[in-house]
């Protein structure tokens, strides 16, 4: 896998992400760290089936919704609308392997 820096405006949470829901996740525990140091652990993404809001082809977040949400909060506090980039590892796993990986990642937290 290679590390890329993808603008926040090109990232969306995948509907297959187990934390995908109507309410934003609680990020109060990681927000101070992301304010100080930024996102240190990359989010795992794949190319989106539908284009992101800017129409330029985006990425779906497979793992890292809380980090993404916290990064968006920090960008909003600094008045950086979608231009701030987050470290991301593009991946193209099959949907079945994504579904199998997410509960394991959640248990490790």
Please supply descriptive tags for the structure shown above.
single chain; 31% helix; Conserved hypothetical protein from pyrococcus furiosus pfu- 392566-001, ParB domain; alpha/beta; five-stranded mixed β-sheet; 109 residues; 3 helices
Please, could you describe this protein's structure?
With 109 residues, this protein is of the alpha/beta class. It has a single domain (4-108), classed as Conserved hypothetical protein from pyrococcus furiosus pfu- 392566-001, ParB domain (Alpha-Beta Complex). The protein is 31% helix and 21% strand. The chain has 3 helices and 5 strands, in the order E-E-H-E-E-H-E-H. It has helices at 31-37, 65-77, 95-108; strands spanning 4-7, 11-13, 43-47, 59-63, 85-90. The chain has a 5-stranded mixed β-sheet. The longest helix has 14 residues, at 95-108.
Tell me, what's the shape? globular
Which strand order does the major sheet show? 1-5-3-4-2
Question: What summary fits the major beta sheet?
Answer: 5 strands, mixed
- The CATH class assignment is Alpha Beta
Give the domain tally: 1
Can you tell me the CATH architecture?
Answer: Alpha-Beta Complex
Number of E-state strands: 5
Put simply, the count of helices is 3
Q: What are the low-pLDDT stretches, counting only 5+ consecutive residues below 50?
A: none
As a percent range, the share of helical residues equals 25-40%
Strand content: 15-25%
